[in-house]
Amino acid sequence: MSLLKVEGLSKRFGGVVAVWRCSLEVRPGEVHALIGPNGAGKTTLTNLVAGVFPPDEGRIVFCGQDVTSLPAHRRALLGIARTFQVTNLFPHDTVRGNLQLVVQARKGGAFGFWRPVEADLELREEAERYAARVGLGGRLDVPAASLSHGERRQLEVGMALASEPRLLLLDEPTAGMSAEESRRMVDLLRSLRGDVGILLVEHDMDVVFRVADRVTVLVDGRVLASGLPEEVRSNPEVHRAYLGERRRRGEVTAEAPGGNGHREVLLRVEGLQAAYGTSQVLFGVDLEVRQGQLVTLLGRNGMGKTTTVSAVMGLLPPKAGRVVFRGEEIQGKPPEQVAARGVALVPEGRQIFPNLTVRENLVAFQAHRNRSPDPWDPDRVAELFPRLKARWNQLGSQLSGGEQQMLAIGRALVTNPHLLILDEATEGLAPLVREEIWRSLQRLNQQGLTVLLIDKYVEQVSRLAHYHYILERGRVVWSGSSRALREDPGLWERYLSVRVGDEGAPP
Amino acid sequence: MRHLSVSSVRRPGWVSPRVLWIRGPAVAVGAAVLLLFPYLSEALDLGYYQSLVTRAFILVLAAAGLNLVLGYGGLVSFGHATYYGLGAYTVAVLGREGVRQAWLVWPAAVLVAAAVAFLVGAVCLRTRGLYFIMITLAFAQMVYYGVVSFKQYGGQDGLRAPRTDFGFSLGERELYYLSLVVLAVCLWVLWRLVHARFGRALQALRDNEARAVAVGFPVYPVQLLAFVLSGAITGLAGVLMAHHTQYVSPSMLSWQQSGHLMFMVILGGVGTFWGPVLGVAALVALEELFHAATVHWQLFVGLVLLGVVLAAPRGLAGFLEGKLR
User: Does B197 contact A97 at a Cβ distance shorter than 8 Å?
Assistant: First the structure.
């Protein structure tokens, strides 16, 4: 008997078909991977199974019971647990509090009116057991908002497990994780195989082919292929639509020219220190971005990459150090003033406006900050990203991850900045979409735009960029040209947690 | 690992010795002052202050009732004067009809407030955000105009509200103690409620509804129950207020009254347990202070409140918590 059976499921948003007559089956105890390009409808399908919204047609059968019209919380209590693509916790609660809520929902629910939950040792102990299981045993009293990105993902999974599900819906559990963290996640998934059925949405093919028993490929809301991993991997149609051909990667290899010593310095950061409250993250970062360069900021999670760009943007006032942009000191200036001088940030997690249409998102930000003779406007963004043109009047919230990312880049471009900063611009995107983003960044750079890029796909960005900085514990520990970076594999292992042979490792 | 985490790490509810050192004696002195206050004020010939403190108790009760939905539920009800006013009007209307037994009138009044809260909540909780605010206000205005149109019960002019019969004479001093006891019991019940499973679920839905639903908490029943309990407590405050003023008027149901209640909660600290107490204490004290000094007292009260809200975004309770940790 199957654990989950989805039959002929369809869902439209406005005029756009997100999922069209999808059928798939998850057997008890198997890991079933759901892969496909961004916008293929993977998250929509997950949401349909979880009961976030009802399908337009089709049936969802769980453990022999038709749950199509059951509300989400009832499905959760039947044993369907999920994680969210973007980490989604109770931020003010501690790790223990978050887990305790899940255990509480499973054991007795919301309607206890007298006994304090703090005095309920059963809840506490069970919560602590699950914390230990996902490696958070030592972080029980830390508020979820203070956890690192990787730890939050661990807590997400812990919460899904704590509901003792029969079916686990995991939406990109390794998104944004370092190589080390995602290896741990793979181990955890493997240890669950056999006990829990898992529907796994994942872009990291390494993870998929290491843990999946069966794979379903979704393209444009339709099931393109389904079967054993080897069958899917060798399916030519799947290659064309999603995985991309090995050789095509080479197209983005136009080796960038080496660092250009005599160009004008656009951004100079000197001895930058910054802290969140009492915990210092940056201990003196020095770097330079020259006019027309594409520069990357590399390093493992938690080493200060996002903090550095936040401090440059003025989102986080630096404790010490100087930030000089076009000859003017801008450290400590509020973000809107930094932006007005021509720095545009594409933040991690995109942060587009969900209730504005694509066009409105772009029009709202249009400005002319670098006085170039050929300014960016929404129509030019549509030329750069034809996919956005097709979604011109859709709300931001209805876009897929890849489209949102393109919109976020477009939104930064229409401000006509001198410097474009991108924080994890390819996180959680399908391989082909990643390529598309990198290609457009390269094109923008060739047209003269200066770019500072944070990205975890070191090998690919080393082909685009002129110069690299590696951060380790809040300091720049290495900087150099792409050639120097690629000729030193030791560097990769030491500072980037990339082992030779992994995806993203040097060839 | 688990052993270590339980014994060596700060547990929730953990209080530093410094705070206990301040807290223990402060609570004892505070309780003694509250218990002896009527005798003190009469001895010093300050009977007015006894009445003022009684009024403050009642307002704390109303604000604490509102705080359950506004603070712990994250539901901005802009119509809680409805339950407050209906509690009071039930006392007056039953009194006019000759029903004065406390054991009949009090439960009836709370029941009326709870029933209306159920009906209003059942509709309003299907909306969110701004719509929720507007629709709670709309219901409150409907009830307001409904009450005004009952000419036989005073209409615009209001109505005398005789005190109910407890089998002993209910003077100012007895009313003081009655309000204190009702408030203490309700605060105790609320304390248990927000720290029990129900309170945790309510706050989880406030903090992250999508996640709380995915975990298995039902939104509607939890929030509706909170709304009804909140209406009932605010209605009970209305009953006490009717006893205090011995007069009810439609202004008790007005949107200004709703705003006043919200303001007390926000000033004290939304979603903090002691926020309503602090908010009412501060507001009543300020009004008294400036009222005595100038005819333009409202202007100065407003300015002070503006300052507090700007300096302490999490209200007085949040401000004090920061100082005492």
Answer: no
